[in-house]
Amino acid sequence: MAGDDNFAQFVDYVNRNEVILNGTAYAYASPSRRTLKDRLNPMEAYDKHEFLCRYRFTKSAVKKLLAVLPLQENADGRGFPLPPLMQLLIALRFYGAGTFQLVSGDLVNVSQPTVSRVVKRISALLAETLFPVLVKFTEAAQVSGVMEEFYKIGKFPGFSGCIDCPHVPIRSAGGDSAEGITGPDLQFYDVVASWPGSAHDSRIFDSSRARVMYETGAISGILLGDMGYACRSYLMTPLKDPQRGSPEYRQASPDCTECSAAYIGTAKRTALEGNPRHRRL
Prior knowledge:
The protein contains twelve helices and six strands. By secondary structure, it is α/β, with parallel strands linked by helices. The radius of gyration is 31 Å and the shape is elongated.
């Protein structure tokens, strides 16, 4: 009988060991697999939030922009050419951060002259490819809708655009003056960014295509500007000496011009946030 008792004790011992080994105390979690990332490729190195903070574009927006721009792979077999995606990211980082070209190059292990050439090339492609598509005046059939939207903002009838000429503080003698005509939905109709900071607002407008289009009737409606412009039949400015009989006009003018100033100011802050240190290309 002693042998039976020993065998029963042995079986009980084995069962207790199985419970212990299969319990949570001995649970073994397999190690997670390491994911290798290309640290020189910002599309892989940063998550969505980090990428947006550095490049001011989402990853999907960058892919769409890359598909639109006519960037070609260098197939001559010489040197180590940058792929189109890296060229676009270098330019976007330079636009968004406003830092020195040397710093932008160190982030992706390229030289400052390479950054300068890439930014110049991408800037020209953006101006040639996207500017005519995105920055344009409203079609004649849609002008009435624009007038209705502006009327909702400031109760101003027949209003088809708002003009302003802010100063862009780039690193040059006096900066640049950029004229912008905006719509009610915070979109640009026209941009003129080729004048120095010393140029007066009215001079820039007098030499622009927008003046010709409004004077010839190619664009219907009225522009609204600030005191920097001369009052014309198609360009209304604030009254110097407002009378008692013009409360509606005095109220409508700032309501509408604030839309333009706010959007242009947002565009400036987006491109030149902080202390801009851009150098001429």
